[in-house]
Amino acid sequence: VQLQASGGGLVQAGGSLRLSCAASGSIFDVNAMGWYRQAPGKQRELVASITGGGFITGGGGTIYADSVKGRFTISRDNAKNTMYLQMSGLKSADTAVYYCAAKRFSETWWNYWGQGTQVTVSS
Predict the structure, then answer these.
(1) Pair 104, 31: CB distance under 8 Å
(2) How many CB atoms lie within 10 A of CB 34?
(3) What number is the average pLDDT over the span 113-120?
């Protein structure tokens, strides 16, 4: 499974960005995808995820970190094998490198990672 993240950039506080994560390779049994972020000096944290469904099966439930609930929306376009993170109401605290991740059915850990895309929110 290969993941390619894109869409990061510089935005003012209160603005919006949409991140994309294109998946390729052996994705037929991917059943969970997510977005993580890592700010300077901090641990990588889960931002949002879709679990229990993949590009082939569809479906799945979403989970959000408390800090982004109501502002971020994770979604997946099965026809394009692409996952998105729509971010609105951005805050300086959202500044980080954002990574997309995936795991296959029966895997416990997020084994597949994209290269990361920088999001910088200016106040």
Answers:
(1) yes
(2) 22
(3) 97
Q: With pLDDT > 90 as the criterion, what percentage of the chain qualifies?
A: 87
Would you say 36 and 101 are in contact if contact means Cβ atoms under 8 Å apart? yes
Q: Where are the beta strands (DSSP E) in the chain?
A: 2-6, 9-12, 17-24, 30-38, 45-51, 61-64, 72-77, 82-87, 96-104, 112-113, 117-122
Residue 58 confidence (pLDDT):
77
Structure tokens belonging to residue 28: 């037929």
SS3 92: helix
Which of 91, 95, 117, 107 is CA-nearest to residue 33?
107
More confident residue, 86 or 53: 86
Residue 15, pLDDT above cutoff 90: yes
